[in-house]
Amino acid sequence: MVGGALEVKQSWVARKFEGTWDDQPDVALTGALMNNAWTLVNEVDAAKPLRIVRPANGYSSSNLPGASRSTPQWTQDAVSKVWSKNGKNYGWKANYAIEFKDGVVSVIGKVKLVPVGALVITAAMKTKWKSQIEGYWNKVFSAHRKACGRGDACPCDFGCCLYEIKVVCKFVDTGEYTTVNVNAGACTGPWGSASWWYSDTWWESWSNNVPKSVRAHEFGHNIGLFDEYKGGATAASVDPNTYKEPTASIMCSGTSPMSWHFNTFLYVLGVMHKDKYKAVKRKRSP
Ligand SMILES: [Zn+2]
Ligand SMILES: [Zn+2]
Question: Comparing 36 with 96, which gets the higher pLDDT?
Fold first, then answer.
C-alpha cells in the first residue's frame, strides 16, 4: 500500500430485515477497510445511521376513467377463418381503488349484488363467493420497485421495496363501483347466451360447463380487466388474427393471474409513491 487515502465507490442498495420497520427505523452502517488479502485492517461505524423510509399509507379511489370499459367485437368468418371487427362493442362497468397500507398493496373492487327473482343472498353466500374470487387473485404477485438495484430476484419480501399485492372483493350495499345481478342455481349455457356468466350477470352456483374460476374471471372484468381469448372482450390492441392466447391466464381459459393484469394497478401505486413498480411472483408463502 502507498500512503494517502483510497476511496472505493461501491454501488449498493440497502435491505432491511423482517420486523424491523416499527421499532428500528434506522440501520447502522459499518465501513470496513481490508488489505489486499481481504484481512480486516480497520472498521469504522458511520456517524449517522441510514434511514430507510417506507412510503406513506395512501388510498386512491375510482381510478378507471369513465368507470367503464369498451372494446371492439370481432367475429370469425366460418369459411376463411379470418377475424374482423363486426362494428359492435363490448361495454361493461368497471372500476377499482388502490390502497397502500403498512406495506401491503390492495386492489379493491366494490360490487353490489342484486338477487334475481326469488334468490336470497345470505352473508354465508357472500363469504363463499368472496373466497372463490380472492382465492385465485390474492397474494400471487408482489409489487416490486423497478429501480431496485437487486433486480427481479430481489429477496426483500419484508417491506422495503417489495410489497404484497392483495386483490380484495368487497360486496357493498352503497358506494359500489359495479352492480352484478345474481341468478339462482347454475347457468345452462351456451357461451354468449342469456343463461351465461358475464361481468354483471353471475350465478349462485357452478355448472359443469364453466370452470370453477368463472366468478374470479368475471370479478376481473369488474376491476377493469379484458378477456384474453379470441372473440371475447379483448383489449383494443389485440388482433385475433395474430393473437397468441395466454391459455394459463384466468382471463383466458386458465386459472392463473398474470403479471400484466397488475400493470394499470401498479401504475396508480407508482403515481401515489412517485415511483415505478412491476409485478413479480410472490416469494413468501402465505
Ligand atoms: Zn428489491
Ligand atoms: Zn370474460
Answer: 96
Q: Identify the sign of the CA torsion 277, 280, 283, 284.
A: positive
* Ligand found nearest the CA of 162: 1
Q: Give the number of the ligand closest to the Cα of residue 13.
A: 1
Q: Which domain holds residue 207?
A: 58-281
> Which of helix, strand or coil describes residue 37?
coil
b/e for 59-80, b at 16 or more Cβ within 10 A? ebeebbeeeebebeebeeeeee
pTM: 0.86
Centre of ligand 1 from the C-alpha of residue 15, in Å: 8
Distance 278 CA to ligand 2 centre (A): 24
For 36, 53, 63, the CA distances from 99, given in Å and listed in that order, are 50, 18, 11
pLDDT of residue 127 exceeding 90, the answer is yes
- Residue 65 sits in the same domain as residue 47: no
Q: Could you give the CA distance from residue 109 to residue 179 in angstroms, rounded to a whole number?
A: 11
Separation of alpha carbons 100 and 54, rounded Å: 11
Instruction: Tally the domains of the chain.
Output: 2
pLDDT band at 23 (very low <50, low <70, confident <90, very high): very low
